[in-house]
Amino acid sequence: MSLARVARNGQRRLAAFSGPAFSAPALSSIALTASPTAPARPLAVPSEAYAHGGGLAAPLFREGRRTKDAQQSRKKKTMKTNQKNQTGLKSKSAQLSSTPETQSAVAPKPDNRLPIDTEARKKNRTLPTPKVLELLKTSNPGLFNLAEVVGKWVWVTFRETPAPELRQILAQLGFHWNRERQAWQHPCGAFRLRGFQDPHEKYASYFPADSRAA
Fold this sequence. Notes:
- 9% of the residues are buried.
- Strands 3-4-2-1-5 form a five-stranded antiparallel beta sheet.
- The N and C termini lie far apart (197 Å).
- It has helices spanning 3-17, 24-34, 48-52, 57-98, 100-106, 118-124, 129-139, 141-146, 164-173, 199-202, 208-213; strands spanning 147-150, 153-156, 176-178, 183-186, 205-206.
- The chain has a domain at 118-192 and 200-213.
- The chain is an alpha+beta fold.
């Protein structure tokens, strides 16, 4: 290739790069449109109220505080309930202790029974029927008038509760109270087991006072 041809080619290439498309204003506009600079995002700064409120830890702290306060409140209520129950039990026990039933249960009842010679009573229970009737008439004629002989036993029956002195005489002579027969009975030495049959149906009976009067 000749030097003249090479020179012409170089001029063409230079002319191509020196056109309006590659001028300085065009290049600057391309640079600006191709890589626009995004505006910087402003930093978020917490407000003063948010900072004084404790930030993210404040709700957690308040929630823990509420739970603790609720537990203390329940504990106080439980203690008050227990104290009321204990006070009620004490007052109830005090009332029970002051009732007449409790006082009567604590205080022993006085023994108003007249003294009895136990050994003499045992001997009197072995005496025969005629001897028992004789002692009964000597001790109290009124008791003798009520006496009934059933078989070998002597019975004394009252329409009403007798006086303590009469009960003491009967007990001393050897009589005992039979709740089922509602009578004071003397075995006259003929001791036997208690039966279900009425002795009046099995043995003959009579009133010594009526026999003597006849």
